[in-house]
Structures are given as structure tokens and as C-alpha cells.
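User: Sequence in, structure out. Go.
Assistant: Echoing your sequence, followed by the C-alpha cells.
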Amino acid sequence: MAQLSFQLQHTDAQSSARAGLITTDHGQIETPVFMPVGTAGSVKAVTQAQLENDIKAQIILGNTYHLYLRPGLEVLEKAGGLHRFNQWKRPILTDSGGFQVFSLAGTRKIKEEGVTFASHIDGSKHLFTPERVMDIQRIIGGDIIMAFDECPPGGSEYGYARKSLDLTHRWLDRCWDRFNSTPDRYGYTQNLFPIVQGATFKDLRKESCDFVAAKDAAGNAIGGLSVGEPEEKMYEICDWCCAHLPAQRPRYLMGVGTPWNILECIGMGIDMFDCVMPTRNGRNAMLFTTGGVINIDNKKWEFDYSPIDEELPNSMSNLYSKAYLRHLFKSGELLALTIASVHNLAFYLWLVGEARRQIRAGSYASWKNQMIVKLKTRL
């Protein structure tokens, strides 16, 4: 067993983009990397075999809030953790549930102790404290677990952001103490990532970067972006945080985003991403492709028998035509959700893989600028 390690392998001369290698007890992760979101232990409409073989996922994400409610900690603990429960053999990252609690604004109550909230399933009352969230994530068994934080909404005023950040830092101290006083549960090393907050205020973000960096954790995350602030402000704050976080640790930008968001933020020095967008949009008939964005519901695809995206090396993108996938959506066939979800995830993994290749070749900046124009095209 060994703590997660990060090897910085290449940097781009024209930007801050970098390629690296994360090593965990469940395997290695080439960065930059996109992590498919398996909120409740399953990436929606996708099998583990498809994740491994078609999508080429190196790591997936599970969520503390959802897994705590269903299937519950007793089921997960008796199974031997999430890896054994869902039969995913590669690394897993677990989000702390802070964002989900943030989204329950109507039922949550934030106190120094923690957050009380009502389950979205049955309305039952629950309390998440920093200590409890560490214990829950230990039981779930992620290779990377996240600190419990408070995520201020986009557009927060300075006074609220100040109080929220102070609370997040006090909670981080409590997470850190609890994590370091409890053992790994399943015979492999778990790693705690702190989260930088501070809304859109640079002085708060720098303070948070400094506070987080002082923990000397295995990796660091940037939270509280893509929560309602303008896209350009997201880029500005992301770039600012990357400049103030240690280069020798992986940087994880939480919950971002579109393909062009990801390429821009790779150029700022981000290594890890996750987002529900590829699967959520796929289930709603929106496809991301190497040539641009497709709404497969449109009638223009009714007689288009060409592959979904023959530039991608996976069966879902090459085996099925646009006309057939449109037919499946129009007919309400469940297969449509699988094809679209696998395709979109495979595209995201291809995109970060190609970004890595361009970084290694020294051509990332020019490739990124050309690629973003294509990615934003509506086909």
C-alpha cells in the first residue's frame, strides 16, 4: 500500500497544460483525465465492461450523499466497499456530497457542527458533519476521497463568501484530523483531497489555495465553479487558482464541464475533471462529436446512414448510424440511452487523451484553439 503519487511528465511551452501520471493502489491514471460520474455506484445506462473497453475510463466517480442513502453503508461495508460491490477494478474517487447538499437549498440547514438535510427519497432527516463524511467515505472505499465543504452559489456577495470560506477551512481541519486518525478499511490506501473555495473573489481564492496547500495533501481540488457564474469568470478564477496551487500535486476541477471548458482549463494546468454532462446530455439526444454538437432528434438525421462519429475508435460511434440512433430515440427505446451515453463518454475520454498527446508533442496550444472552434459547431 502506498499513498497516491503524481509524476509530472510533460509541460506545454505555449500554455500551462501538462501531462502526468497518477499512481494509486488500484492502478495508474494518465492525465489530463476525465472521470465518468457513477453517482450511485453506476454510470447511468453504461456497463462496467463498456466503461473499460469502449470508453477507456481510467477512474470513475461515486457520490457520498447518494451512496449513503442507497444502498446504504451496511450493504457497502458487507460487500467490502464499492469496488467489490460494483465490480470496478480501477480507481474510484468519491465526492463528499457537499455539492448535493448545496443543491438541497430548500431543506438544508448549515451549522458549525455540519449540515442537516432532508433525503430527496423519503424526506427523512440526516446530519453530515466533516467527521461523519470522512467515516462514510472510508466505508465506501474510494481511492481518492474529498473533504466536506460548503459550496457558495454563483454570484455570492463577498460577506457570504467570506463566512462560507472560513467554515470550509474549519471543516477541512476537522476532516484532516478525522482522516488521519482512522485506518484504511479494505487493504489499500485512501487519499484525501482538500477543496479550494472562495466564490469569485481572488483574495479569498488565494487564501484558500494557501490554506489547502499547507496540508501537503496527495492532490488538491478546486470547487465552487460552474455553479452559475459567467464562463469567463470561471476561467479567470481557475487560472488564478492554478497559479497558487502546488505544481507537484494533481489539480482537480470539480464538475466542469463542456468539451471546450475542459480544453481551456487543461491549458491553465488542470489535470482531473468530472461532469454529468456527457451522460445527461446523451440521454437527452445531444451528442458531442469530433466535428461539433449534434441534436440527434432533428429530422435532418432521418436518412443519414453514416456512423455517429467515425473519428472515434469505439463500437458505439462506428457501428450505429445517425438515422438508427434517431429512430431509437423517437421510438423510446432504452438502447438509445446506452448508445448516446457510451458515445459521449468515449468522446470525452478521447478528447483528454488527444490533449495529452498534443502536450507531449509540444503542440497543445495551437491544437486547442483549432479544436474549440470545431467543438462549438452546431451540426
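User: And one key feature?
Assistant: The chain has 15 helices and 17 strands.
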